[in-house]
């Protein structure tokens, strides 16, 4: 797809905060947003550009302008808006609405504006209602009247829908890239711990011994699905809305399919009303982001537990842990906690957008302007959480000996004894009962399963023959779970082998 390259937060000039927040004092100094004389003068005292002033006797009330302005957050769409504008200029030329000279001048001005935006020489001001208004002002400043031709056949409604799709398709790839890096870090750690036995838990209680590598890879499987979800999402998001106009399409001979192809989309819209009102792509992206947040939160919670004194399975590198301002001894897993905490905000973004969309009549409604902040916040959140999690995972020290010692704790080999009896012809229900009695005996006598003598076994339950002691080995328990997808070290090695091409494919899709 067409990419404007890595566009991370802060790479593009931000809006002049003072003006965007419409600081009242400053507004007075500049004779800023007012509703007198029907205009909201710009910094130079001239009337500000509005894309809709003609039929209005006066300018907007300050309260309206304050509510309506979105440039402080939609400015990050500027590179995508400019990209779409180039395609629109070319389609106007093909339609005979711009001659060759005009097209060349228009494309040159758009390139210059693009450079000025990137370098921060062209900045939006609060008088620019939104990114589209700001960029049209920039074009008019450069081209004069010719700049006004670009809006033919185009509305901010089809423009903003297209810009947001371009932005998200670009950023979905960035998120996928960072997710793949996290998966790679987990796989690298898993490779070192294929043979490290660890307590496997259900209900956070010791259940059965597992390979620690197997546990790490369980998180990788979730992150791989997350990338898969983004790739799948991308197929549906790959639709250009340009040419839909405000809602009904255009009477001008535009070429939506050609524009779509130029912008790297798979296709153009099928229904102009849907094109300008559909935000499924944003909602679906936010679901994918929220679910990734949930996965990060679950890994974060495990790392929080693993780093406690009670578990002591893992020690974080100093560079990826924090201290306490009062307790000199503390080393805190703040990254893991923030990953856990920020999942709330990702779920919130999804909820906010779905709530906004619910009940909107077709086609465009101004409510739709509310689509952008949740989307941007979700992208920013993931792009800041993922690298921190990756760094933490890549540098954390696993305390192999502690894991190995804890692996059989809590009678974790009890299932192995029961299954051994079943292999020898005992009905599982009876085997379960016998081993339950064995565990109760151990609890009462403060003993481990392998402390129990052959005589005691026979007394506890006659099914417990002396040979059951042969299965009381953690290594044996791991090796025994050798069916596909199980925790046997050989199966874990298979899993690592199978993940390699998947991660390569995901890396390639993400563009790194
Ligand atoms: N800033 C607007 C948005 O994000 C752009 C579209 C405005 N369209 C309109 N008809 N007022 O939705």
Automatic annotation (TrEMBL):
Annotated signal peptide: none
Catalytic activity from the UniProt record: 2-(N(omega)-L-arginino)succinate = fumarate + L-arginine
GO annotations of cellular component type: cytosol
Keywords, comma-separated and alphabetical: Amino-acid biosynthesis, Arginine biosynthesis, Cytoplasm, Lyase
Comp. bias regions, Basic and acidic residues: 16-31
Chief place of localization: cytoplasm
Domain Fumarate lyase N-terminal: residue ranges: 67-348
The Argininosuccinate lyase C-terminal domain, residue ranges: 411-478
Keyword Transport attributed: no
GO biological process: L-arginine biosynthetic process via ornithine
Intracellular or extracellular location(s): Cytoplasm
Region (Disordered): 1-44
Superkingdom of the organism of origin: Bacteria
Coiled-coil ranges (or none): none
Pathway listed: Amino-acid biosynthesis; L-arginine biosynthesis; L-arginine from L-ornithine and carbamoyl phosphate: step 3/3
MF terms in GO: argininosuccinate lyase activity
Any matching Pfam family: Lyase_1
EC number per UniProt: 4.3.2.1
NCBIfam families: argH (TIGR00838)
Family the entry assigns: Belongs to the lyase 1 family. Argininosuccinate lyase subfamily.
Protein name according to UniProt: Argininosuccinate lyase
């Amino acid at each position: 797809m067409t990419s404007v390259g890595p566009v991370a937060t802060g790479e593009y000039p931000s809006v002049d905060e003072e003006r965007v927040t419409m600081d009242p004092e400053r507004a007075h100094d500049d004779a800023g947003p007012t509703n007198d004389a029907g205009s909201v003068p710009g910094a130079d005292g001239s009337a500000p550009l509005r894309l809709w002033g003609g039929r209005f006797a006066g300018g907007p009330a300050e309260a309206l302008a304050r509510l309506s302005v979105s440039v402080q957050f939609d400015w990050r769409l500027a590179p995508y808006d400019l990209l779409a504008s180039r395609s629109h200029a070319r389609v106007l030329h093909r339609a005979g609405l711009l001659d060759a000279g005009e097209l060349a001048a228009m494309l040159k001005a758009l390139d210059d504006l693009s450079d000025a935006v990137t370098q921060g020489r062209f900045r939006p001001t609060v008088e620019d209602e939104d990114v589209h208004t700001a960029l049209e002002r920039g074009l008019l400043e450069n081209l004069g009247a010719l700049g006004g031709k670009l809006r033919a056949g185009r509305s901010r409604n089809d423009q903003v829908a297209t810009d947001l799709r371009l932005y998200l398709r670009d950023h979905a790839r960035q998120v996928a890239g960072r997710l793949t890096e996290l998966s790679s870090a987990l796989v690298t750690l898993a490779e070192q711990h294929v043979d490290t036995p660890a307590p496997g838990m259900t209900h956070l209680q010791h259940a059965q011994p597992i390979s620690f590598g197997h546990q790490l890879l369980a998180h990788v499987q979730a992150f791989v699905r997350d990338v898969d979800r983004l790739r799948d999402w991308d197929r549906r998001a790959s639709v250009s809305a340009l040419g839909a106009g405000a809602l009904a399409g255009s009477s001008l001979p535009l070429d939506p399919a050609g524009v779509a192809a130029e912008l790297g989309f798979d296709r153009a819209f099928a229904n102009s009303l849907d094109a300008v009102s559909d935000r499924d792509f944003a909602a679906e992206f936010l679901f994918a982001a929220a679910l990734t947040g949930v996965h990060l939160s679950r890994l974060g919670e495990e790392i929080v537990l693993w780093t406690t004194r009670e578990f002591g399975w893992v020690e974080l590198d100093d560079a990826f842990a924090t201290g306490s301002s009062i307790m000199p001894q503390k080393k805190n897993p703040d990254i893991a906690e923030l990953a856990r905490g920020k999942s709330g905000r990702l779920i919130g973004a999804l909820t906010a957008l779905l709530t906004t969309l619910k009940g909107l009549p077709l086609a465009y409604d101004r409510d739709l302007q509310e689509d952008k902040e949740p989307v941007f916040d979700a992208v920013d959140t993931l792009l800041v959480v993922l690298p921190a999690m990756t760094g933490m995972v890549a540098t954390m020290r696993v305390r192999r000996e502690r894991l190995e010692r804890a692996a059989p704790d809590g009678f974790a080999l009890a299932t192995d004894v029961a299954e051994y009896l079943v292999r020898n012809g005992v009905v599982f229900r009876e085997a379960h009962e016998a081993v339950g009695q064995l565990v109760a005996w151990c609890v009462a006598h403060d003993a481990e399963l392998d402390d129990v003598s052959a005589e005691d076994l026979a007394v506890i339950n006659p099914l417990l023959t002396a040979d059951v002691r042969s299965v009381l080995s953690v290594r044996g328990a791991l090796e025994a779970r050798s069916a596909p997808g199980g925790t046997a070290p050989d199966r874990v090695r298979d899993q690592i082998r199978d993940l390699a091409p998947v991660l390569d494919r995901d890396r390639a899709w993400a563009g790194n």
